[in-house]
Write a structure and sequence with these properties.
Shape: globular
Structural class: mainly alpha
Strand content: under 5%
InterPro entries: ICMT_MeTrfase, PPMT_MeTrfase
Distance between the termini: 48 Å
Function: Catalyzes the post-translational methylation of isoprenylated C-terminal cysteine residues.
Number of domains: 2
Catalytic activity: [protein]-C-terminal S-[(2E,6E)-farnesyl]-L-cysteine + S-adenosyl-L-methionine = [protein]-C-terminal S-[(2E,6E)-farnesyl]-L-cysteine methyl ester + S-adenosyl-L-homocysteine
Largest sheet: none
Order of helices and strands: HHHHHHHHH
Protein name: Protein-S-isoprenylcysteine O-methyltransferase
Number of helices: 9
GO molecular function, one term: protein C-terminal S-isoprenylcysteine carboxyl O-methyltransferase activity
């Protein structure tokens, strides 16, 4: 039987290839001009498709659908970066970064917990707040691209955001793979029989490396978009979210591992600025 990981990879790659061919033909024959209006329409379509896909209950349908959508968006992002007006190109980088992040989330879970992976492992429907934050950043980008196009052409700053996203993505996935079966997208209230405290590898530097990676990845997406309002907003909101999340998670970890986790807290920091977690 074909695994969910194989299905997702196949649909992502095939969709990427088909979209790439379509984009190449469009570049040669200029069937569709990628101006600001076109991008807004495409992004609205993405929101609608994502919303529908997030509410398809059957994994055998929703997993290939979401993987295909992400593969297409990854290709479209590359095309936008190379073939549109200068003030819109950074949105292409952002689109590819977002598509790859959500696809790699699924693949990482499929690798470490193949029996637990579902369509929700793409984390496309992470939370209403996450979706609102994403839409807000799009609104800011398109408004500023329309009224202040020069603002979106500081590419060296955008590339700095790309580096942050790549580093954050790498750190998060490394943390997930290091934790293995001990990793879960949701805070667990009961300790599994095979759950162990991971303190080696990247966990010897940070207690919560997956959150550290996600935190800087999120800020990096807004630096890519050159969004002066969303950059500090994302930093503040992400800090509040992870501060609360780590506090709650460490209560459960102290219950699970007792003195072993207390000793771990004493020698390894959380990894996020000014976040100490729950301490006894």
């Amino acid at each position: 039987m074909t695994s969910h990981k194989q299905i997702a990879i196949t649909h992502f790659v095939v969709s990427f290839i088909l979209f790439s061919i379509t984009c190449a033909l469009n570049y040669v024959y200029t069937i569709l001009s990628f101006d600001l209006t076109t991008l807004i329409c495409l992004q609205s379509l993405v929101i609608i498709i994502t919303f529908i896909g997030a509410h398809i209950g059957e994994d055998k349908i929703s997993i290939p659908c979401r993987a295909s959508m992400l593969g297409g968006l990854f290709a479209l992002g590359i095309y936008i970066n190379f073939a549109t007006s200068p003030h819109l190109r950074v949105f292409g980088i952002y689109l590819s970064v977002m598509a790859f992040f959500h696809f790699s989330e699924f693949i990482a879970i499929a690798m470490i917990q193949p029996n637990q992976v579902t369509a929700n492992s793409f984390v496309l429907n992470h939370s209403p707040q996450y979706n609102i934050a994403a839409v807000t950043s799009w609104v800011e980008f398109f408004l500023e691209a329309y009224f202040f196009p020069d603002l979106k052409e500081h590419f060296y700053v955008s590339y700095l955001g790309l580096v942050m996203c790549i580093a954050g993505e790498f750190l998060r996935k490394l943390a997930m793979l290091t934790a293995g079966r001990n990793f879960n997208h949701l805070v667990q209230s009961e300790k599994a029989s095979d759950h162990v405290l991971v303190t080696d590898g990247v966990y010897s530097f940070f207690r919560h490396p997956s959150y550290v990676g996600w935190f800087y990845w999120a800020i990096g997406t807004q630096i890519i978009l050159l969004n002066p309002l969303c950059i500090p907003a994302y930093a503040a909101v992400s800090w509040i979210f992870f501060n609360s999340r780590i506090y709650i998670e460490e209560i459960t970890l102290l219950n699970f591992f007792g003195q072993s986790y207390v000793n771990y807290q004493k020698v390894v920091r959380t990894g996020l600025p000014f976040i100490k977690g729950y301490e006894i």
